[in-house]
Amino acid sequence: MHKIITALSLATALFASLPVPQQLQADFNQTVLNTENNQTLRYSGHVAMKLPNRAKWSYTVPVAKTICLTGDRAWVIEPELEQATLYRLDRTIPILAILEKAEKIGDDLYKAEYNGIDYTIRVDGKKRLESVEYTDELGNRVTLRFGAIDTSPLEDSRLKCDIPEDYDIIDGRF
């Protein structure tokens, strides 16, 4: 779960300092390659983001899951487990520090380094987010790719996350 939230908070915070729109909706594909056993985990779904710090990630593959980011909190809602877990984002990689260090290294390419981890951020020719790539602290190569990007105004209702009353609530902030 840590890897997912780290990647998601990276992508959400990314819009704060790079020349991309203040809000968007997009399809995404995330791959996590374990370099020790050469196994790849694949995730996909849809994301809606609105700056400065709100996002809703709706995973459809491999299982349904919703991750809602607001400020320094993340709710992970898992229908299959009938549970919702609250995380504090400052327990993940400090993304804003990474983005403050991001340097343009090409027309559509940015790099940042933080605590020994290098991040590569790509935007397309229209300055829309295309991908984020990095190798995490466990040696996994993580890639987030975005497509079908829509930067038209986004209604706040698209970012709303509902937790059913009968779900178990887990506080993972500590």
Structural summary, described in words:
This protein is 11% helix and 51% strand. The protein has 2 helices and 12 strands; from the N terminus they run αββββββαββββββ. It has helices at residues 2-14, 95-100; strands at 23-34, 39-50, 54-61, 65-70, 73-78, 83-88, 103-106, 109-114, 117-123, 129-135, 140-150, 168-171. It has a 12-stranded mixed beta sheet. β3 and β4 form a beta hairpin. It is globular, with a radius of gyration of 16 Å.
Structural class: mainly beta
Largest sheet descriptor: 12 strands, mixed
Shape: globular
Order of helices and strands: HEEEEEEHEEEEEE
What is the typical, i.e. mean, pLDDT? 80
How much helicity do the residues have? 10-25%
Using DSSP, what is the number of strands?
12
Low-confidence stretches: 12-17, 91-96
Question: Reading side by side through the largest sheet, how are the strands ordered?
Answer: 7-8-9-10-11-1-2-3-4-5-6-12
